[in-house]
Specification:
Elements: H1 3-22, H2 24-37, H3 39-53, H4 61-75, H5 79-91, H6 96-110, H7 112-123, E1 126-127, E2 130-131
Antiparallel strand pairs: 1-2
Helix pairs in contact: 1-2, 1-3, 2-3, 4-5, 4-6, 4-7, 5-7, 6-7
Length: about 140
């Protein structure tokens, strides 16, 4: 086995651990559904975002999810990914109220349509069978 293969497997293993910790079953379902279409791309999703970026030490997972939720909201066209990361935010300690505030903040920078779409994604995102609408955990 070459050094590059060992390094790639290390990225993959690190990415798998991060994906499970952050996104849980929702992330695993996304990767599994991609594997049927483009197995190499499914592997890239594990290695780069989760094995390389999310695993970096200088920013915590909670802060990374705040940034991700804000960015996906600002895009305005990434509702499926936003829903997964709203769940991830809840998994890493964000409250429903914090998620709503993050999304509302994006109205200033990304516009009201993007924020409204983000709030609808939060409304329909179920965590432990409840709506992400300010309900206590």
């Amino acid at each position: 086995m070459t050094h590059a293969q060992t390094q790639a497997e290390s990225r993959f293993d690190r990415g798998q651990r991060a994906l499970s910790r952050i996104d849980g079953r929702a992330g695993e379902k996304v990767v599994a559904s991609l594997a049927d279409i483009a197995p190499d791309f499914a592997r890239y999703v594990i290695e780069f975002p989760f094995g390389d970026i999310y695993s970096r030490p200088d920013l915590g997972l909670r802060d990374r999810e705040i940034a991700t939720i804000a960015a996906l909201t600002a895009l305005g066209n990434a509702a499926p990914q936003l829903k997964v990361h709203i769940e991830a935010g809840l998994n890493v300690g964000l409250s429903r109220d914090e998620i709503v505030e993050i999304i509302m903040q994006m109205a200033v920078y990304a516009g009201f349509p993007a924020a409204v779409n983000g709030l609808f994604a939060a409304k329909f995102s179920a965590h432990d069978g409840r709506q992400a609408s300010g309900e206590a955990t």
